[in-house]
Amino acid sequence: MTLKDRIIDEALKLFSLKGYASTSTTEIISAAGTSKGGFYNHFKTKEELFTAALSRARKIWRERNLAGLDEIGNPLKRLQKLLENYRDLYLTDSHTFPGGCIFVTFAVELAGQNPELAAEVNEGFTRLQRMIQRLLDEGKEAAFTKPEADTARVTEIIFTGLLGACVIYNLDHSRNNLNTTIASLILTLQDIQRGDDVSV
Q: Distance between CA 165 and CA 177 in Å, rounded?
């Protein structure tokens, strides 16, 4: 692992625990086992490091949450797999994100402090919501859902449910509560399925 990668990884851990503003470059330098010179050879500013860390966090999010989705034909099953991956591969990864989902941490912290950085974070939430909507719409077009299914409403339920699960898990790290929330979202998917295809 290069020094640059180590700095980013340690920054992600600290950002997830303490937030961006409350994490000093000195703490990051110490955690990465480098010097000020080593740090500033790779990052001119803390904000530049934030951009690199956010990019790495997004890459991790995609690798974990989208794992195996391409192998599934039914859009509803792909969405269920996303929910399961979120529960099993992403949110409970205490090594990479010891403080929980870094995107929620950033969104809450930066909303009132740094609108530009907050906008970068919120872009990811917008893409997630659009992805959920797209999968549900594809499922409806392919007749996997009941004709009357309101995909916009279900999108809102699943999207806000995921964010809620994330916030609560950041607070209590309870696997039981997380399992219950994800199970409820999966049941929401099952509720809109056609009667002859009840197993997502």
A: 8
Residues 6+ apart with CB under 8 A from 168: 174, 177, 178, 181
Distances, alpha carbon 182 to alpha carbons 93, 107, 158, 189, in Å:
16, 22, 9, 11
Residue range 97-129, pLDDT digits in tens:
998 889 988 988 888 788 888 888 899 999 999
What's the CA gap between 70 and 57, in Å, rounded? 21
Closest to 11 measured CA to CA, from 45, 138, 170, 153: 45
Residue 112 burial by Cβ neighbours in a 10 Å radius (0-12, 13-18, 19+): exposed
pLDDT value of position 108 = 84
More confidently predicted of 110 and 39: 39
Instruction: Report DSSP state, residue 74.
Output: S
Any alpha helices (H) in the chain, and if so which ranges? Answer: 3-18, 25-32, 36-40, 46-65, 75-85, 102-110, 115-141, 151-172, 175-191
- Alpha carbons 95 and 151: distance in angstroms, whole number: 35
The model's pLDDT over 137-196, given as tens digits with 9 standing for 90+, comes to 999 999 999 999 999 999 999 999 999 999 999 888 899 999 999 999 999 999 999 875
Q: What CA–CA distance (Å, rounded) separates 28 from 35?
A: 10
CA distances from 116 to 18, 43, 104, 168 (A): 20, 19, 16, 26
The CATH code that applies to domain 54-191 is: 1.10.357.10
